[in-house]
Batch of 2 targets.
Target 1
Amino acid sequence: MLSFFKKKPSLFELLPSGFVDIHSHVLPGLDDGSKNTTQSVELIQGMEKLGFSELIATPHTMTGVWENTSEDIKYSWTSLQEAQGLNIPLSYASEYLLDNAFLERMQEGDLLCLKDRMVLVELSYFQAPINLFEILFELQLKGYIPVLAHPERYAYYFSDFKVFQQLKKAGCMFQLNLMSVVGHYGPESLKISEALLNANLIDYVGSDIHHKGHLDCFQRKVQVKNIEALKQTMAANAFFSEKA
Ligand SMILES: [Fe+2]
């Protein structure tokens, strides 16, 4: 009865113990995230303070913008291992834009995975590839499982909610950005986040932290009403724990 008066929790307060983040840009010098080792250490320490227990860093791989190879990413990760002051386990994968170079990598089997054969992919914010469903099909033929980053951020799907159901049916998993539920990406993303949670379409969550300003978002109040569904998806990230 008193739920109406209940105080909204801050985002960081909802993180379960042992929380594993599967999406961030904390590796130095690869993309629009951390620029150098000092920034990486600051970010990772900030995340640890907020309650993150393990991280899988996922720098962008995007033709013409951030043309990272698997070796580049591994090199950046290795260099960070030598830094002082890091206390939580950190592994690496990538957030791949579904472009032509991605298709080549897929054919060569050269994709860095979150775990097993699960690969984090993103779409352009302007339009999805015309052959998106074919790509998803091909990926799975190659034995990969696509995990779509932040489905709630693709504005061209906002008026077409059924496409989310179709993507799930096509074998795509969904990773919600945590900052979406505090309204960081605007009211429309927040609304779609709530709808995706209510429809039980979200599999996992990720921070998508790029810089220190993003850490502050975790102090903000959670705006979605379905806190239970959000907590469940946060708990589901335990699947990615190195200890699992
Ligand atoms: Fe990202």
Target 2
Amino acid sequence: MLEIGIIGLPNVGKSTIFNALTKAHAEVANYPFATIDKNIGVVAVPDPRLEALLPVYSRGERIPKSTPTTIEFIDIAGLVKGASRGEGLGNQFLAHIREVSAVAHVVRCFEDPDIVHVTGRVDPINDIATIHTELALADIGTLEKRLERLRRSAKASKVDADLVEQCETVIDELSAGIPARNSQVALPQEFPLLTAKPVIYICNVSEADLTQDNPYLAEVHKVAADEGAEVVVISAKIEQELTELSESDAQEFLGDLGIETTGLTRLINKSYALLDLLTFFSGNTKEIHAWTVTSGTKAPAAAGKIHTDFERGFIRAEVIEWDKAVEAGSISRAKTHGWVRTEGKDYVVKDGDVIQFLFSV
Ligand SMILES: Nc1nc2c(ncn2[C@@H]2O[C@H](COP(=O)(O)OP(=O)(O)O)[C@@H](O)[C@H]2O)c(=O)[nH]1
Ligand SMILES: [Mg+2]
């Protein structure tokens, strides 16, 4: 499961965004520690290609059910200055961040005298630095604990001696403000470093600033560019309002605002790019389904997303590109055009592939 942890200082709009995303009812309140529990929401990934495939698998009046692929968002509260030393909610947030695939870091770029800012004024760069420091301190703590043991085993093991050196380099980098994801050394995967996670900055701007320039955005873009992170500009308030409208009213509202896609859609698209994910489709007359895999996934592993038997008993895959399937109007017609390819176990799945797996168990 692809999980995105929403982090940021209190009162930046995390829960508002989370609620808009999940249309669930996590607590939203003008109070720093309103959301103590880890809130998890599963969100459908909007993909117009899925609906476009419906006619391909329809039989007369019978239209299959369509099931989108999903992404999980976790509203992680509790990050404040000093959190790595146990301030505020303490460091329970650390465990939550460790579990996610990527971090969506919400940065307050809206002014509102009614909404308390933890430091008293809107200052995204300072806020980002505060969070970076807490995450870096937590990582340094993790590495130092590891080093205690590694230094002992390093006497007998060259591998561990090298690890000691690598850990020390990463600690130096972290102390200099360089997150582990930008490190020169690649520590083994099992090191649970928070600053190693890919990051998307969500700039939460006021309604008006969605279509006009906001003085803070350039600053955040610069920080992100230096780190190789993504940026999404959204207005949490608008996302919240959009969830209360019918689909046609929402479209009209977006049109009035002069924007094409919702913040949710942009956030998911960026998450996909950041995590190197792609979508493939499977279908029959009953159901068509979108699935998410990491780029580079081979056909048998992709089949395993649908059912473990498909992977275990994989024989071959019949693959057609999404737009070709739509153009043909049905799989049998696509076959007569010669647009359906037979692929074996070494086939690397591509974004937009429509795949039928043949298997035997
Ligand atoms: N004016 C304005 N208020 C916002 C915006 N986003 C969130 N808020 C308000 O700020 C307060 C804190 O938001 P919340 O989502 O609970 O922040 P969290 O502490 O980061 O989870 C709530 O009263 C929200 O309604 C925004 O874009 N503009
Ligand atoms: Mg909250």
